[in-house]
TrEMBL record:
PANTHER family in the cross-refs: CRP FAMILY TRANSCRIPTIONAL REGULATORY PROTEIN, DNA-BINDING TRANSCRIPTIONAL DUAL REGULATOR CRP
The name this protein goes by in its record: Crp/Fnr family transcriptional regulator
SMART domains, alphabetized: cNMP (SM00100)
Domain named Cyclic nucleotide-binding: residues: 17-137
Molecular function GO labels: DNA binding; DNA-binding transcription factor activity
Amino acid sequence: MTTSNSDPELRFQHTMWASMLAPEHMQKVRDEVTERFVPAGAFVCRKGDPVDHWMGVIDGFLKMSSISPEGKTVTFSCMLAGGWFGEGSLLKTEPRRYDVVALRDTRVAFMPRTTFNYLLDHSIPFNRFLLHQLNARLGLFISLVEYDRMLDPDTRVARCLAAMFHPYLNPASSMQLQISQEEIGYISSVSRQRANQALQLLEKKQLLRVDYGGITILNLDGLRSFPQETER
């Protein structure tokens, strides 16, 4: 993981909360947030690490996961450009409870704990944003329990793809998503081959289109309610 020196303004171009801050608060953020480059396959942070920063994706793709005592990898979430994470651990002042790995070359913004706490103390819009984000993340994690325990692989792929389109968790996502079938397998906890089968089915149902190097979402509500939506 190396330090990068790109234009500070570009660090926040996809970040929802940045536009909500007062000018003097945003200037403090610009001055104190740093950036690091994380190559594909490298750890951004590991389970058990001390939590000293709030982190955001400038560009790239991260996976948040943990390994169970039985050796099973459980994927909690993925983060694209504009997504920020780690607020729960900062608020509770506890060690990191998950691993975050770069699935492709990624630039990550690091906001120090002191800056994060300053915004909590001085910015009502920032507090409102965090409430909405924490609520969205809670809903996502509850749904992941259902995905893992109750849903078949096709439905799991559909719902995990749909979860990537959330204004608070992944605000920069467009309907054209540059993602490989291997990456879809990672976030859905299925093999690449099984992810390919699921994508073929979802394409047949006209919920998405498989493109070269990615997918285009055609019916986001249909993905969220699959398979019920296709049975009507």
